[in-house]
Design brief:
46% of the residues lie in helices and 14% in strands. With 294 residues, it is of the alpha/beta class. It has two domains: 3-141, no CATH class; 150-293, Protein-Tyrosine Phosphatase, Chain A, CATH 3.90.190. The strands form three sheets. A five-stranded parallel β-sheet has the order 8-7-9-6-10, sandwiched between helices. α2 packs parallel to α5. The longest helix is centred in the C-terminal third of the chain and has 15 residues, at 225-239. The radius of gyration is 22 Å and the shape is globular. The two termini are 33 Å apart. The model has no long low-confidence stretch (mean pLDDT 93).
Length: 294
């Protein structure tokens, strides 16, 4: 079993085997935020801090009959002592979490997290209801609202879906253009339907433009920078000249929304065809804008 899933089971164990899903996310957040290297990352979601990876792990634990999904609650089924199997530092951190926060529940717990970590409340549906005017204004002021034109590229290699999404939120990206040929990934959160759901729930439009992708067969045996350069020269010569309509679609989205990102897999934009797609877009654009590689 993944160690991070033992953390989830131990958390439920400490809180008497049952927690509301919203409270569960908040307790898990408070545990992770103190770690130099967190087990889970979080995004600002409709009820505050939320880890899609943690939720997916809980659903997996349900399949193994270790946890039961009770609609709004998680219930521990397995009676094993997972807490005792953790490293000492993690066991102590969870025990301290339980000691310090077990009496904070529901709106009181949400309010505590919002007041102490306001970034995670910027998309909250409850913030105005449970916070005073000063705290709510702070959250509204933290929400990115940038008016200059920004054209980004971003790859998800080596990133969690939460880290990837936070990068887009903090740059106030309004549209993500996925230019993979096939929008499928073994990495959780980055297949088309998952990615679209997550992004559109934080106010980012997702559009898949497979016509601008590169066939997977052409990506075999890329070992050197020269191999990549040859691939991208062929992409510029053979693919992009026939994709003017798709490029105009992205250009129009850029003009309408001001802040968009081109997305593919590779971490380094120089080793990805999105850099060449970007070059083609630059030729179409006459506005003042900034380019950034996330």
């Amino acid at each position: 079993m993944f160690y991070r899933r033992k953390i989830l089971l131990s958390l439920l164990q400490l809180f008497k085997g049952k927690l509301p899903k919203i409270d569960f996310q908040k307790y898990l957040f408070l545990f992770n935020i103190k770690r130099a290297v967190p087990f889970f990352e979080f995004i600002p979601y409709k009820y505050g801090c939320y880890s899609f990876q943690a939720n997916q792990d809980m659903l997996t634990l349900c399949k193994y009959n270790l946890v039961e999904d009770l609609n709004k609650n998680w219930k521990l089924v397995d009676k094993s002592n997972y807490l005792s199997s953790l490293k000492m530092e993690d066991r102590i951190a969870l025990l301290n979490l339980n000691r310090d926060f077990k009496y904070l529940k529901e709106d009181d717990l949400i309010k505590y997290v919002y007041e102490n970590y306001p970034y995670y409340a910027i998309h909250s549906l409850k913030a105005k209801e449970i916070l005073n005017d000063e705290s709510y204004k702070l959250i509204r002021d933290l929400k990115p609202n940038k008016n200059n034109y920004l054209l980004c590229t971003i790859g998800y290699e080596g990133k969690t879906i939460e880290h990837f999404t936070n990068q887009l939120i903090k740059e106030d990206i309004r549209v993500l253009c996925d230019i993979r040929k096939n929008a499928l990934s073994m990495k959780y959160g980055f297949s088309k339907n998952q990615l679209k759901f997550i992004l559109e729930n934080v106010g980012i439009e997702y559009i898949h433009i497979p016509e601008l992708g590169i066939e997977s067969g052409k990506r075999q045996n890329l070992n050197t920078l020269e191999d990549y350069e040859e691939l991208f020269r062929n992409y510029e010569l053979d693919t992009l000249p026939g994709k003017l309509e798709e490029l105009k679609t992205i250009h129009n989205l850029f003009i309408e929304n001001k802040r968009i990102a081109l997305m593919c897999f590779e971490a380094d934009h120089k080793c990805c065809h999105r850099s060449r797609t970007l070059n083609a877009l630059i030729k179409l654009n006459k506005k003042d804008y900034t380019i950034k590689h996330l």
